[in-house]
Amino acid sequence: MRFEDHADAGRQLAKKLENHKGEDEVTIRRRIYIFGDSLAMGHFDYEQGGWAERLRLDIEKRHKAEVVVYALGISGAKAEDLDGIIESEVEHRRQDPGPVHIILQVGTNDVPSKWNPVGTDIDEFKTSLTNVIEQAKKYQTVMFLSLTKVASDSYAGHTNEEMEKYNRVIQEVCEKENVKCIDLFGLDLELDEDGLHPNAEGHKK
Asked: Which residues pair with 100 in a beta bridge?
């Protein structure tokens, strides 16, 4: 699948129920919740605050109040940090029984780095991912964005060899849980000077 297709995946969530309204006049809003780490938070996109914020602005501009997007990325989050928070975060913001869609992007901080030399144990990582996805599957749809490549001089000391190892785990868990995983690892995104986070051009794609 081309990257252009990947970029449209989140928007397609908003379109799926575009014509699905009740016969009454009560507005039932569709809500998209984005959970993850600093990539989902939008670090180093100084123009529009990251891909999640760009998605929010695009969808809400086109669909007005019918679709609401919540960008809930947490800098430094690991997979285990999302375990147990999805339902409370969703229900706290939910104001009607409309459909809920979850987008996940986490795992980079589980990979070995300068600050986490050993990294998260693979089995523990797999367990946390499974728990998070199963909690998210309570809602209408779940989508996972994979890890991305880093530069050889990444400031945090990540290597693409280790990133790919953890990315395979994400793909395996998503396949087992029957959740769509958009694999970004094979793409060359423009990175910030830190060699880890996409810059504005990278998020724009």
From this structure: 31
